[in-house]
Batch of 3 targets.
Target 1
Amino acid sequence: MGSAPVKSSRPGSPVWDRPLIPLKILVAGGFGVGKTTFVGPLSEIPPLSTEQVMTALSVDVDDVAAVPDKTTTTVTMDFGRIAVDDQIILYLFGAPGQDRFWFMWDELAHGAVGAVVLVDLRRLDDCFAAIDYFEDRRIPFAVAVNQFPGSPAHQDGAVRAALSLPPDCPLTWMDARQARSSLDTLVALVAHALERSSGAGQAPEDPAAPR
Amino acid sequence: MTAASGPGGFCAAHRYGWGEGDRVVPVYAFTQGRTRPSGHELPYEALVTATERAVEHLPTLQPERRAIVRMSVQPISVVEIGANLTLPAGVARVLVSDLADAGLLVVHLPQPTTTGGGPREEILGRLLDGLRSR
């Protein structure tokens, strides 16, 4: 993480004389797929987690039945931070994985650069929900296969077919414990988002087009 | 559990003159029960920086507000403030909003997005360059 932290041009002054630009990328995927592991090595601050109080309305029915008196619960969300240049600070948010926390995704996804969907090939089904979510909302996403020891070996084509990925969706093979490999995934995602953004003016994609 | 200990056991709050023991009221009492502003007005990633006025007023502020001003001498986001103070992000959001209304914090919001909802092309280009150069 060699880049210089954001600094005031007037040392010692508490007043920031330059507008700052916050950006965010979501890291999604099934429970235990490596979202926290992905965020950690990339972040220049020790990865933090925040909690969000959730009311009973948002809680899965089964949980309420199991704990009848419980009206609120908390969701924790991991996040990390990368100072990109002297104005831009990128936040990585590990989106809560379970279906019942998706109400949080809408806020997280609003204005996001895009999302990384982490995939464990041994549990492919876990990532479909995330892929559907980002596709439905036309949020750029990249699929990153987090390779665990003993992960089955597959070719790109087989994974793309199994996940019904759009042809332009980046697919990377990586190890979430390695910052370099996670960074490569972020680069692939941002390049994809940029491509879509610059192409959007001339040739908007037809949402109804077969993929 | 100590204040703000995340998965890595990180504890930052005491650096800002804030400890778990300082809190003797439920967290929502800080905000008089308000949960506004909403996420679209002040998203998690919104950055804040302290103003000179905030530093002058530091001794007069309540402990949690003082801690926020101290940590905002460097750019910091709403979500980091919440994590550092072990407050839910929604509570941090209200406190930040109050401090901004009082002229003690400057809020740096995400810039207007494209019709698709994402950041503008120029910003994405800078992000890509920045990530590639790491």
Note: Confidence is low (pLDDT under 50) at residues 1-14, 56-68, 201-211 of chain A.
Target 2
Amino acid sequence: MPFPSGARATSREALTGILLLLPAASLALAFTLFPVAYNLWTGFFEKHSLRQTGFWVGLGNYRSMLGDSHFWSAVGQGVTYALGSTVLQIVTGVAAALVLHAYFPGRNFLRGLALFPYVIPTIISVAVWRWMLNDIYGFVPYVIGALGIPGLPTAWLTYDWIMLVLILLSVWIFFPFVTVNVLARLQTIPLDLYDAAYVDGAGRFRQFVHVTLPQIRNVLLIVILLRGIFMFTKFDVPWLLGGGAGAGEGIRTLPVFTYQWAFSQYQAGMGAALSNVMFAMLLAAVTIYLIVFPSEET
Amino acid sequence: MEKWQRDPWLRQLVAERREQGVGRREFLARLGGAAAGVAGASVVGRSKPAGAQTKVVVTTWDTEPNPKTRAVMKEIVADFQKLHKDVEVRAEGMGWADMDRKLLAGLAAKTPPTLSHSQQYVVTTFRSRGIIEPLDDVAQAIGKDRILPSVRRWLEYDGKIWGLTHAWGAEMLGGRADWAREAGVNPMGWKTWDDWLRDMPKLNKPPGHFAFTLAGGHAFTLNEDVYMWVGSNGGRLFDDQGGPTLETPQVIEMLEFWKKLKPYLPTAWTSHSFLETLAIWTSGKAAQNLIWGRTAEYVDLHAPPDKRNPEVFAIWPKTIGPSGKAPITQFDNEPWIAYADVPKAEKAAGREFLKFFYKKENYRKYCDSVPLHLLSIFAEDFKDPSYLNHPDRVRWKPWLEAQQKWVEQGQTFPLLMTHANDMNVKWIGDVGASTILADMAVAVVERGKSAKEAAKEAQTRILRDIVDKARRG
């Protein structure tokens, strides 16, 4: 049997390649691109979730959203939450990684323990925090009241304080993500670098600034990016903590606001438009971030 | 009836086309899509082996997850299946929040349950959207005239029965009679909000206990208070055309009154769930609470043994606002509803199951699973010693009688309704599911916004975000 000529063989290989790629490409198309495209399309309609049909309103949903003070409030609360919790997660996570990188008895046990908040189901974490902060039965208000610490409220789950609670709770749940990533990188930094810095007269602080930080820079940039995205789109923690109303109005972030439009008020068109805006905001923020902080080759 | 009219999906599509909610092009495209779907389904259907007949599956979703009620439902289902070997009933109990999500997903996927519990305003909304079907045949079979008039009045739309209440309960104001005596307060003399507010300081002893507690952690429970107090102030949330009426004096006065209640509420009341308020009241951290019959279980759970009785945990009168003539109370009158978009055989089996559910021996077991809250819908039961002499109904007789009185007076109103016409407001369900009314109350009570301003904002939001959209189709 003669071998196929070079050109025929190449085209047959290409065809085989395309056929092999087809299942994966179809899946990506069906489960990623189509929902995104459909969501973009739905955002141009006024559509009630319980109706089969909707009608074209063009940019009507977007115009209406921009003129709604509750939308801007949700944006403000979402940004406050994302920024506040991400910054504190990074600070806490890096500090914990540095501690867990040092040698001390029980270090391995503590490394395991540090992961706990991250592996506990979110609903449990939120329920426990709600219980600890309950103004009638809670442990925290009781201790604050008993010690008479000035300036601290005795009721935390109120409109005025619930954002702070949400940020602290989220830091507690998610800082281990930062710790694990940074710790992994810390363990690969050559000790020679510290020796050299020491010989040059650098103390602990200057070693951290001039050796550790540059070495973990790329990991930190990725972790900040991921945590920022995760926190801006975080739905479960603010929803479980505040329920979207009452004191929860103080933590009605953009994902919660979007959910309420789509699944409580049954306005699928507006819900889609809001999630498109959220996507656009993230895309813009990520682009600016990557331009300002390009990753460096190590 | 035309052949296409038997198909609920097509019926809804045609109805929406007639309402001009859908253009000609989209209508035809959807019709084409449906035809392709039917063709595809028939090809898939043909691939089933011959004789692979399976049981008819009836799915019911109810909102009584209480273990005792679940056990009774299981018994009823088992007995029904013994009589109907070709039917399998999957009865699932869940909380209201879960039900909402599941229903929305089920309706979107065109796989609703056969039957489910619902709220009155959901019946209104679903009926107007062609999602449910009337239950006249079941009502006829169980004896329509046996149903309490106060229950029945909320089930009938245009002469047809669109839902059947599984059991009812009326909200009450529960109060600590022992503390009232100690403080020299006579709650039975309260008639107006001013009377009530006058005695609040005497019952308020923080940090020991607060005078009152409210469930402000969810829009649902905040909505309950909004409409109940507006109704007790002679007001309404909707006019006869369904437009919101939040800028009326009755609503403004209600908000001002609520603001005056704040000093007597726990500081973080806006984060408390309904169940938390039950624990707060029954464990002695608040003197009063808005309660239902099932709260008796919490009294037994949290109160000291010597106080677990209606002489201590008493029922006090609800009061009226400055513009009100008679107080109203919330009616837990949740009906079973039957979904249109289910196969014919499933529909028929579901209706048979409902008839079986309401048979005396089954229904009595069901009501007795929560004797003070799952109250019978049949008038004759309230004259029947075998019903009234249930140990819990005897023990908590004042609680039972208070609920009966509300129903006899016809002052029980389902959520968001303060007038009979409100049951025709098509978008009432959307208002109930939104946070607009809750936001209005919290803005005034917690954030110091003026009542007029908050009411105006809520009025605008309901008009812009719900009513105008609904009117456009």
Note: Chain A has one domain: 60-292.
Target 3
Amino acid sequence: MLSYDFLTTKKLDEALNYLDKFSRVQILAGGTDLLVYLHKESSRLSPFDYLLDISNISELNFVTPVNNYIEIGPLVTHSSLISEPIIKNNFSILAVAAQTIGSTQIRNRGTIGGNIVNASPAADLLPPLIALKAEVELTSKKGKRVFFLEEFLAGPYKTKLQANEILTKIKIPRLSNNYYTDFQKIGRRKALSVARLSLTLVTKIEEEGIFRDVRVVPGSATPYPQSFPESEEAVNGKSIYNIDLEEISKITSNEMVSITGERWSTPYKRPTLAVLIKRALKKIIQEAKTNE
Amino acid sequence: MSKITVTFMVNGKEVTLKVSPKERLVDTLREQLKLTGTKEGCSIGECGACTVILDGKAVSSCLILTGQIGGSEVLTIEGLEVDGKLDPLQQAFIDYHAIQCGFCTPGMLMSAKALLIQNPHPSQEEIKTALEGNLCRCTGYKQIIKAIERIK
């Protein structure tokens, strides 16, 4: 039986004090994952004595452009990511990915910070955030630490967050006009679907139609989301006019299997991931050609 | 596990309650406030039977601890009716036979109500999106969508 005391606050300072003063504290934000774990008494929960509710700390709920970055508070809900014009205009893939999460009820409560810290292999926002080179800021009484999101993730359901820290900011560098982005997802059905497989592609296309700074991040393909350097290298420097999509799709599928090994799901995921990378490339190539 | 005192609004009335740290909003509504119109189905946020409107938005009351909602405003199915008169949405559900066993109905109505609060003239696609978190296993979705369409 779970047994704990409940702490809640509207101030970040006070939350950090709680984390400093007490040990074995579980943080609660939107609750769309945590309440399920609590209900099931899931083994994913580390034992805890205190539940610290941060969902009412309004200073952790913001979307603000700062210089060349867009800064997002961890309590921004999936619904807000979809409706916030700054997100739509700068990182439409983030809004598209948020739209595919759960249902209206889940999107109204679930937060970007929770999606990151829970670090599920199927977390829908992680692949686009990694591909956008997002950084996360962690705050404790002792100070701040900043990581690239990709380095912050440490395994399935594991991150580098320390017990005394709160994720306080997500920073995403803005993309210049010659960058193109696409998010592809396949679920068992449209609503409420946990991603069976997704793929995020972010790339620059130089004037002569050459791919540069290519970022390929599949979701639900590996134990936790990570970029695919071989696939990125394979696309890098190719031309939108004569890139061999078949060859690229084989490289991406093989790269997945080289990370996961052959699994029961491989006969499904190998050809499916090949289709997703082809779809993403085709879409971006078409867009780039229209913009010429 | 020490109890917490929480004050919030339910259907326009302020309530102050002592709740356990484990108590979910659906538990408080059904067991402390006897508002049993809100149903508990799957308990993991997938079926939508426990949907209520929290500060204007549809949420699953099985995924919220009551301790989290101090100062908030909750609207449940019991709060739709005004002075003994059904909300037009409730009447439309009756008129369009959008009810069979009735278990999903309160959740359906609250999801639909939340949509109409934000968007009084939704398209059919927007209605479907608003209802994607509400499962119905007997009435059929067509009548429900038709009933909501009549309101706009």
Note: The radius of gyration of chain A is 20 Å.
